Amino acid sequence: MFGFTSCIFVKLELICLRMGSNLCCRKITELKKAGLTAQKNGKIERGYTMKRSKKILSVLLCAAVAASMLAFTGCEKKTDTSANNASAAGNAASSGKKVLKVGMECAFAPYNWTQPNDKNGAIPISNSSGEYANGYDVMMAKKIADAIGYDLQIVKTEWDGLAPGVSSGKLNAAIAGMSITADRLKTVDFTDVYYKASIVSLVKADSKFASAKSVADLSGAKCTSQQNTIWYDMLKQIPNATIQPAMKNVPALIVSLTSGKTEVFVTDKPTAMAAAYANKSLTMLDFSASGNDFKASDEDVNLGIAVSKSAPELKAAMNTALAGISESDRDSIMQDAIKNQPVTQ
């Protein structure tokens, strides 16, 4: 009888080992020892054998049920994992690469904006479920991340939170149409220029200022721009201007302009081009050809990528990546961004 049960014990142990159940293995070992002791002491009588056989049968049944449950659970987990992998194909953590967390407003077309799908190469916004980011900044971020071997993650961030986010380490970089100013350099570092944006004005096409040929011709206008930008500082160059409070973002400025509350919105050329492209009631005023335009330094018009002062290696890698993107490529990316912004669809 015990020769037969020994075979059963061996099979049970194999099952338990496959299940990884230490408790199961211990119980079988106890039963085996008890059986061997009983055999040694000559206690293999009918009652004892039947009692032990029932215990063995109970363990066998439990092991079989457990093994079946484990196999079933294993199949379920495999299916779930496949589904999760499929739904998170672009998940940075799954690739094993380092993650480049890039902050931007996602509300500053054509540099960056929010849209409901991945059309035209948009990527998911990591902290805003169901939303995607696209625009010049996103396309440049993708090129840079690919070049330096990182996975890209876009983090939707208010304008005033970008520099603090980089300096605190919450963000690896901010690619958001940000000028490289001495004031900002106090808290963050910058890469080489990733776009050069001249300063222009945006007015309604039927406005009395639509025919202006110089900054001087904007005299007396009600004007404003975005808060904490060099554009707002440019308003002082307009003679007798009624300077209104700065606004939070570009969409708010466009609404103020189209509603007539504001007569002149000073911004950079790509932003004005995108707004005029999307809204035919607006027109861009560029005085650069006449020389009677806004006086701006290179610091004012050179846009850079903000990085932490404690990340010189990342800055160097990004500069190498930027060097590989020609000016013509950058212009082409900007033109695509202007055409692809959601409001123009």
Description of the molecule:
It is globular and about 60 Å long. The longest helix is centred in the first third of the chain and has 42 residues, at 46-87. It is built from 12 helices and 14 strands. The protein is an alpha/beta fold. The strands form 3 sheets. Strands 1, 5, 6, 7, 8 and 14 form a 6-stranded mixed beta sheet that branches. A 5-stranded mixed beta sheet has the order 11-10-12-9-13. Strand 10, helix 7 and strand 11 (242-243) form a beta-alpha-beta unit. Helix 5 packs across helix 11 (312-323).
Write the layout of secondary structure elements.
Blueprint: H1 2-19, H2 22-40, H3 46-87, H4 92-95, E1 98-104, E2 113-115, E3 123-124, E4 132-134, H5 136-148, E5 150-156, H6 159-168, E6 173-179, E7 189-190, E8 195-196, E9 199-204, E10 222-224, H7 230-234, E11 242-243, H8 250-259, E12 264-268, H9 269-278, E13 282-285, H10 298-301, E14 302-307, H11 312-323, H12 327-340
Parallel strand pairs: 1-5, 1-6, 10-11, 10-12
Antiparallel strand pairs: 2-4, 3-4, 6-14, 7-14, 8-14, 9-12, 9-13
Helix percent reads 40-55%
Percentage of residues in strands = 15-25%
> From the helix content, strand content and strand pairing, which structural class follows?
alpha/beta
Radius of gyration: 34 Å
How many angstroms separate the termini? Answer: 83 Å
Oligomer category: single chain
Number of strands: 14
Order of helices and strands: HHHHEEEEHEHEEEEEHEHEHEHEHH
> What is the number of helices?
12
Which ranges are low-confidence, i.e. pLDDT below 50, for 5 or more consecutive residues?
Answer: 1-5, 36-54, 63-92
Mean pLDDT: 81
Shape: globular
> Largest sheet, if any?
6 strands, mixed
